[in-house]
Amino acid sequence: MTNIEAAPAPDFDTVVIGAGFAGLYSIYKLRSLGFTFRVFERGDDVGGTWYWNRYPGARCDSESVEYSFSFSEEVQQEWTWSERYSGQPEILRYINHVADRFDLRREIQFNTTVTSAKYDEAKNCWEVRTDKGDEVTARFLITATGCLSVPQIPDYRGLSDFKGQKYHTGNWPKEGVDLKGKRVAVMGTGSTGIQAITAIAKEAGHLVVLQRTPNFSLPAQNALLKPEEIREVKATYAAIRKRARMSASGNVYLGDSMGKTSALDASPEEREREFERRWQIGGARLVVAYKDIGTDETANGTAAEFVRKKIRQIVKDPKVAESLCPTTYPIGAKRICLDSGYFETFNRDNVTLVDLKKTPIMEFTPTGFLTTEGEFQLDCVVFATGFDAITGPLLAMGIMGAGGRKLSEKWQAGPRTYLGLITAGFPNLFMITGPGSPGVLSTVTCSIEQHVEWIADCLTYMRDRGYTTIDTDLQTEDAWVNHVNDLADATLHVKANSWYLGANVPGKPRVFMPYIGGVGAYRKECEEIVADSYRGFNFASQGKSKTASAGTS
Ligand code: NAP
Fold first, then answer.
1. Which CATH class is domain 12-150+389-468?
2. Which of 172, 349, 460, 547, by CA, is between 20 and 30 Å from 46?
3. pLDDT digit string (tens) for 154-174?
4. pTM (2 d.p.)
5. Beta strands 374-377; 368-371: pairing state
6. Which residues line ligand 1 (CB under 6 A)?
7. Where in the chain is the domain with CATH 3.50.50.60?
């Protein structure tokens, strides 16, 4: 470790990148603990994911009352969600409300993209540069950049020649797009595409849906929240949050939905009743109706077949219905989609499904695109083609650790972290909902709060003891990565080509990135590690390094 005693103090204790849920709560926490910091945000306002994803139909697939901050009882009591699953405008209003209420915009520099972040060993600080010419130093760097913030647009031949409008859902114009009466194509049928297709079909003159792989989608059964439901939630908020924090996914508002028995122990009639009951309640609970749907292919097949049967019942054209039925991967292995009338959309006269597996796109033309079956004329193409998930935002920032090592080099074969919070050789870098943590498999606000609180506690712990550096070692990191892989390998999640595995980005290493053991189990592991004097973390101060587990007080 380098002696940093004589080095000049950095400009800030911390630089935070991003001003969505994670960045805003970081500001609140760091400020309340007296740390100095600067926040850089690419957008011109707060909101992160909910700032960028303004596409028609954008809606959350976690229950509103849970997809929100729990740290302030005042906010919980004064904010009233209008729907069971909030639309993007309402979530963005909420985020703005929180930012205003706690005056969180003060330290944020908007319209600023971080272009490089380099750890300076001699000074023991991060040098952060931005596209606006900023060069600031901070002891710690916290990435609050979200897991789904680098949009992917496929590289189809002729796409640049297309003269119509082109949009990616994750970068939707703030002023909106008038699609009324237009000939529109939506490419992609993941969570985003399913929402956008359902909404755009009602507006467009004609909508072409470009589907490569059909997805399992369940009805959200979205509805306005009733005054008595809101009263009940507000009266029991503390208890709901407490249960959520120790649950599997952070989603407990309507009761524990995880089945306790095997699907194979139930009779076909019992299973049918249970699946139907859960279909009617709405949300993702159908895929956890039995304890083995996520781990046993036969059990899984019973739920998958129930959904396929529903699709065939809803969609009137049997050929279209068959194209919409997912058959190549287990249900729940990809992120389950929630919809508000998606399959019904294909009964509309103004909607055409193009099954790209049967009739691939040959090329885009100045006026549309050409498949093996013929030409389609378009005014607009909407790409709902997903994101370079989880690692994409981290690798886009030119992060360089000790010895000038690039994060992109270290993670060439896939991300490696300890707890999804830090990565060896990149001292004083904390990642909120980083790879190897449960973030994307949970109600993400629950995971974000846990990470921000963990980091804030850790910074306080270090300050109290005069530590100026935190890192981990490769052995600890390898053990965590193996643990994350072992958990994933015991499930059917690894059997689908999903963004969890990076499979949607050509050339990205196929590694299951999130921790799948559940937010409660993960929280417990984090707490035990802290209680065990930050087991696996190495701290240093004034040139002296110290392995935490050797005792730190
Ligand atoms: P996604 O799940 O990765 O889906 C991308 C879609 O684009 C897939 O259907 C994919 O087909 C298709 N695609 C990609 N490249 C293509 C190509 N070259 N040609 C044709 N099709 C192509 O992305 P997403 O729908 O944006 O969702 C990402 C995640 O964001 C979700 O899983 C969810 O976690 C989050 N999200 C949440 C909500 C919500 O809260 N309701 C809403 C939207 C998004 P293949 O399947 O064949 O790859």
1. alpha beta
2. 460
3. 999 999 999 999 999 999 999
4. 0.96
5. antiparallel
6. 59-61, 148, 154, 187-193, 195, 210, 212-213, 335, 338, 356, 384-387, 499, 504
7. 12-150+389-468
